[in-house]
Amino acid sequence: MREYMEDLQCEKVLMAWPEVGQAAIQPIEGFLTPETKQLLEDPMRLLLPKEKMPTNAPRSRVRASDQEWHQIVNAAWRRGMMRPVDDSCVPRDRSGHLITNGAGAVFKEKMIDGRQVACQRFISILCPINAVTTPIVGSQETLPYIGQLTGIMLEEDESLYLESEDLQSAFNLFAVPEQWLGFFSYSKKVDGSAMGLPPGTQVRPALSVIPMGWHSAVGLVQEAVRDLVFNRAGVPRTLSAEKNRPLPPGKSYAVVYLDNFDEIEIIKSVDVELSQEGVVMSEHHRNFNSACDAAGLPRNRAKQLVHAFAGGMQGGEFDGRRGILKLGSDKLRNYLQLSLALLARRTWNEFHLRHWTGKTAFLATFRRSLFSGMGCIFDLIERSRSGDVIPTVAAADEIVTLVCQSPLAQTNLRAILSTEISCTDASPSGGGSGTASSFAEEAPGVPEKLAFDGRCGHCAGPLDRAGIYPGLRLPERLRLSRVLRGLHLCPPALMWPRTPR
After folding, report:
1. Are 205 and 190 in contact (CB under 8 A)?
2. Are 165 and 289 contacting, i.e. CB atoms less than 8 angstroms apart?
3. What distances in angstroms separate CA 396 from CA 1, 147, 483, one per listed residue?
4. How far is 457 from 478, CA to CA, in rounded Å?
5. What is the pLDDT along the chain (501 residues), one digit of tens a residue?
6. Which residue, of 62, 120, 221, 452, has the fewest CB within 10 Å?
7. How far is 366 from 396, CA to CA, in rounded Å?
8. Which residues in 339-352 are b (16+ Cβ under 10 Å) and which e?
9. CB contact at 8 A, 162 and 281
10. Has this prediction a pTM greater than 0.90?
11. Domain residues of the chain, as ranges?
12. How far apart are CA 213 and CA 224, in angstroms?
C-alpha cells in the first residue's frame, strides 16, 4: 500500500487546519526544560560542522501552483503559522546554495457535519534541513510504549476505565523562536501581498510553528505536553507510564503521548454500574482541562472520553469490562492487507521486508509469544540489502502463520501470573523440557551428558539413535517442526506421537 504526495489545494488544506486564532498560541520555549530550551536558543550551533556539511544539500520543491501557494501562504499567515524571512537568515551548504524545504499534501478524511469529507494534510518536507542539523532529542526517547500497558494486572473482580483528552492540532499550537524561521523556509517564494507586505515583491515564507516533518518535533512537543500535564495541571509524575520506567504502582496510570493525555483507572467490577450513573470527570482530568484553558490551548471535544470502558490508545484498543488490551481493528485490517500483498509479489526488496517486520513487531507487543513466529525473515532482510530477493518457502510460511495468528494479538489483563517457569527445546533429533518454581541461589553448572538407552524419557517408548520416533520420514519431521515452531506449539521432539497424523 502506498500514498503518493499530492499537489496542494488550498480549499482541502484549510479543512484540516485550525481556525484563525487557534494556532501559534504559545511559544514552545515556555514549556521546555532549561536544558532543552538552551539548545533551542541558537539553531546555528546545531548545523553540521563545515567538514561534514554536504557540498550540495538535498533539495525539495513545493508541490503547488503559484495561485494555490499564494492562497495557502496567506491563510497560514493569517493564522500565525507562517511568516516572511530574509534570505540572509537561511543557512547555506558548502557550495553556497540556500537550504530550503518543500511542501506537499497527503490524503486525509475528516468528519464534517456527520459525513466523511476528503481533505489534505499539509506536509512540510524538511529533508534538506534535517540532513544538515543535529536533532534536539527532548523527551523523544522516553515516549510511553503501548506494550508496557500489557503489564497491568487485573484481579478477577476488577475492571478498568479510560479518560482521554486530545489537543487540537498540537504541533500548530506552539510557535518557534524567530531565529528558527530561516531553517523552516520554503523553496517557493510568494508575492508579498500574501503576507501583509506591499504587492509586487517576492518574499520567502517560513513556517513559524513546530513542523511535523522536523526531526526534533516529536521530542519538543512531548516535553511541552508533559509540562502541561505534570507541572501546570499538577498530575503526579509518579503516575506516568514512560519507556525508561517500570509501570507505576497502584491503580492509576497517566499516559502522555504527544497530543494525548490518557488516564487509566482500575476499579472494582461491582462499582462499574454505579460509576456509570452520573459520570463525573476525574480530578486529574479536570486539572488538565483547566491548564489548557489557562494557556489558551484548544482541545478536540470529539475525542474526549470520560469514564469510558472502551477506547483507543496508541494503535491499541481497551475493553475495560473484559480486561482486554488488543491491536486496533484498523491496524489489524491494515496488517492483513499488507501481508497478503507481500505474499502476492514475485520478488521482495529490503523496504518491503523491513516494513512488514516492523508491523509484525508492533502486532506482537499485544501478545508476546507471536514473536516466536519470526526467524527466517531476518536472514532474508540481510540478503535483500544487496538487491531484490525471491520469496523463500520458509519466509512465506512465517508470514502465513502470523496472518493466521494476528486476530489473537491481544492480552488478557486478568490472566493469572504463573508461579512456575517452563521451557522446552525441540528439534528433529531430540528435545527436552524443564520447569522451575523458585529462584536458585546460584547458577547451576552444566550437567553431565547422559547415556542414551534408546527409550523416551517421557513415555519410555522406543527411539532410534537420532532420538526420533520410527516411521516419521525426514521431510515430514522438518515440515512438522517448522509448522509447530511457527505456531509456538513446540513440544519436545521426544514427546511426538508414535503414529503421527
Report:
1. yes
2. yes
3. 19, 26, 12
4. 22
5. 567 789 999 999 999 999 999 999 999 999 999 999 999 999 999 999 989 999 999 999 999 999 999 999 999 999 999 999 999 999 999 999 999 999 999 988 887 777 888 899 999 999 999 999 999 998 999 999 888 999 999 999 999 999 999 999 999 999 999 999 999 999 999 999 999 999 999 999 999 999 988 999 999 999 999 999 999 999 999 999 998 889 999 999 999 999 999 999 999 876 665 555 567 899 999 999 999 999 999 999 888 999 899 998 889 999 999 999 999 999 999 999 999 999 999 999 999 999 999 999 999 999 999 999 998 999 999 999 999 999 999 999 999 999 999 999 999 999 987 788 888 888 777 788 888 887 777 766 666 666 667 776 666 777 665 545 455 555 555 555 554 444 444 444 433 343 333
6. 452
7. 22
8. beebeeeeebebeb
9. no
10. no
11. 10-136+172-214, 159-166+221-326, 329-405, 421-438+453-495
12. 17
Q: How many CB atoms lie under 10 A from the CB of residue 24?
A: 22
CA dist., res. 414 & res. 152, Å (int): 9
Distance CA 81, CA 98 (A): 22
User: Which three-class secondary structure state does DSSP give residue 92?
Assistant: strand
| Pairing mode of beta strands 202-207, 190-191 | antiparallel
Query: Residue holding cell 550540495?
Result: 56
Taking CB atoms within 8 Å and a gap of at least 24, the contacts of 197-206 are: 197/84, 203/84, 204/84, 204/85, 204/86, 204/87, 204/90, 204/100, 205/73, 205/76, 205/77, 205/82, 205/83, 205/84, 205/85, 206/82, 206/83, 206/84, 206/85, 206/181, 206/182
In the block, residue with C-alpha cell 501559534: 24
